[in-house]
Structure formats: C-alpha cells, structure tokens
Specification:
Length: 160
Amino acid sequence: MVATVKNQREQGADKWSIAAGGKLRLDGDLVINGVNVPRSASFTPAANGSNVCEVLIALKDSLGVAVAGVFALDVYLSDDPAGAGLTATTASGAVTAATSGGTELNAMVAKKAFRVLTKADGTYKLSITDSAKTAFVVCAQLPSFGKVNASAALVTGNYG
C-alpha cells in the first residue's frame, strides 16, 4: 500500500489519516475485516440448451485470483463494450440466475438489470434465453469500488 498527497500515519495506531483532498493508492489487495475485497470480474459464456447462454461471473483480486465469499452485485445487459447504459433489446425469454448459479434478489429492470448475490465461492451464473441470440455485453458492478466490469459481446455460438 502506498499513501500519497498529505497522508499521515498516526503514531502507534494501525490506521491512516488522509487530509481533505488527499488520496490513498492501493497497489495490492484490499482486505476489510478479514474479507478480501474483489477488484475485478471475469466472464465465461457457454451454450446451455436451445437459445440459452449461461455466463459465469467470477470475482477476482488484484492479481486475478478468485475471491471466495458471498457478495452483492448489480448485473445488467448492455449494448456498449464498456458497459455504458442498458441494452435497448429485450431478450425473448427468461434472464435470471442459472440453476445453482447464485441468488437473484430483485430485477431492477425486467430482463435487463438485477441485484444478485454470488455463491460462497464468489461466482454468479446468469442464464439468458434469447431466440435472436443477441450480442449482449454482460456487466457487473463490483460491490466495493462501484467499478463496472464488462464481458466481450456474446456471439451466436455462446447460445445453444
């Protein structure tokens, strides 16, 4: 960990004080109360049944190593490669957690945006049924930094 710009470590304390306008830059993992905080997500799409694509979202630390734990994520479908905005297209079928893929807490926008919980291994599997086999970009907003991670656009071969 590297502290920059007007940062000062309090003598005898195990904490950093950051002055107004100061910054704290982390060059490694962030652990809060013993929990390794995810820094990124990986996306692995796979065909599963007729017109179905399942996308495994796995949370990773700063070195790309899987992070175990139950985490709340916002997961959504976009048309933009960077995940800017919701898709304009609605899937023809269900968009939900795959069987044993995690927990969908609520749909924020039907078939497009969801609040979910990962399984204890830090993964969530989204199931998309779409006869048009749309090139959705699957996005996950990480719980700690608000950073959006986006998959590559799905392709026809990702659907069964």
